[in-house]
UniProtKB/TrEMBL annotation:
Recorded GO MF terms: glyoxylate reductase (NADPH) activity; hydroxypyruvate reductase [NAD(P)H] activity; NAD binding
Keyword Transferase appears in the UniProt entry: no
Record key words, sorted: Oxidoreductase
Entry-linked PANTHER family: 2-HYDROXYACID DEHYDROGENASE-RELATED, HYPOTHETICAL D-ISOMER SPECIFIC 2-HYDROXYACID DEHYDROGENASE (EUROFUNG)
Name this protein carries in UniProt: D-isomer specific 2-hydroxyacid dehydrogenase NAD-binding domain-containing protein
InterPro entries: D-isomer_2-hydroxyacid_DH, D-isomer_DH_NAD-bd, NAD(P)-bd_dom_sf
Entries under Pfam families matching the protein: 2-Hacid_dh_C
Chain ranges of the D-isomer specific 2-hydroxyacid dehydrogenase NAD-binding domain: 1-129
GO cellular component: cytosol
Amino acid sequence: MGRAIERRCRPFGLKTIHKNRNPLSAVEAEAPEYVPFDELLSKSDFISASEPLNAKTKHLVGTVEIAKMKPSVVIINTARGAVKDEAAKTDALEEGHITTVGLDVFEGEPKINVKLLKQELAFMVSHIGTHTVETLAKM
């Protein structure tokens, strides 16, 4: 998933860095730089989650991690809602510590945090990533 995101960023001239459970070879990663998690948090303008949800990734990004981010950061979550602490993300958005969130997954699905729904800069859609002509044809 991360490599697919990187390929889509490339035409826009975006420099991508990544944090993976294990560093990928340059060939596997198609050249993005591997960085430690704290460095990724502090350097990134956009942070996109594509991790599976498990005991190690639940609330991987919470209040402590958000405090390390640039105030201009855009957080995108298309993985699983609980990978990023939704309450912490909502509070940071309200307080202006993060600029925008783009979500198609929510921690309490199918319910969505009411405070999050009220945020003007929270862009939300239902989890429909596989609903493309190409993907549906392959299913």
